[in-house]
Amino acid sequence: MKRQNLIDGLLFVLLLVIGSQVRVWLQDLPNFAPVAALALFAGYFFRSWILAFCLPLGVMLLSDIRIGSYDWRMMALVYTMLAAPVGLGLLMRRYLHVQRRSFAPSALAFGGLMGCSLGGAIMFFLTTNFGSWLWFGMYERSMAGLAHCYVQAIPFFRYTLCGDLLFAVVLFGGYALAVQMGFATRTKRQLVIQ
After folding, report:
1. Angle of the 72-83 helix axis to the 49-67 helix axis, nearest 10
2. Which of 20, 34, 39, 144 could form a disulfide with 62 if both were Cys (CB 3.0 to 4.6 A apart)?
């Protein structure tokens, strides 16, 4: 087995176990979870996009066994929207190359990370709340009802945004630190903040 495949497999299992456990521990904080950040990191780090997509879905499945399930339509939508940042991670890997020590590329990489985290959180907010409005009849079936649904969800969005940004900084910062200390290898396709 190639060394990189072994590293990918071990990191996948480690992130799967830790991510699902953290989601269970933080279940009392609505929408404050590491799943979207893990999806972003998986899209960036893993060479296999299948492996990258399986990480957030696996974290959700494992943690939902402990937390419990909900309406199947909403579960499918939530799982899809939490796996979507994998695509943003793939874009980061492709376009945000940082070479030597320099403030401008590092600032660009950090800005890209924050932008992708924010973009994933906004996509999740808009899509899942639209699904809630569409399927559950809690709000009037009109544009005013949809607007009311989004306004009511703003407190949850704050938790989503804070969780996504915090966990993205921890994951990518931890990886950059591991690269700096020589615990992780650099490749031309990976972002290295120096």
Report:
1. 140
2. 20
